[in-house]
Amino acid sequence: MFSSTLEPPILLVRWEQSVTTQDVQEVENAVKEAYNQVGPRLSYVAVIPSDVPPPESSVRDALANSSKRVSSLCSSMHLVIEGQGFRRAIIRSIITGIVFITRSDFEVHTSLNDAISAAKIPNPNLKNPDFW
Prior knowledge:
By secondary structure, the chain is of the alpha/beta class. It is about 45% helix and about 20% strand. The protein has a single domain, classed as STAS domain (Transcription Regulator spoIIAA).
C-alpha cells in the first residue's frame, strides 16, 4: 500500500506497508498520469519508511520491470530509504541490485530533503504537509 501526491514537477510516493505487485502497477499508472500533467520535467521521489519490510522476489521482479518503463518518463528518480540497521541495509542492497540490473537512474537517499536537493529542485512548498 502507498500514498502519493503530485506537487509539480514532483510526484511524491510514500510506501506504507509491504509492497505488492499490484502496488507496483498502481505506482506506474500514477507516474504515467503525472507525466501527462507535468511532461518531461517530472521528478519521481519515493519514500520507504523504516517499518516497511523488504519486497518479496516477485515484487522485486515487478519493480525492476516497472523501473525500466517509468525511467523514460522522469527527468530524475529518487528513492528515500528511511532508518538504519540490518533491515534497511537489505533494502538498500535490493534497490542497488535493481538499479544495476535495469540501468535505471534512481538515486538512493536517507532523507526527503537530500532527495529534493539532489534532484536540483527547489524545496517544494507542499500543499499537504501532513502527507509526510
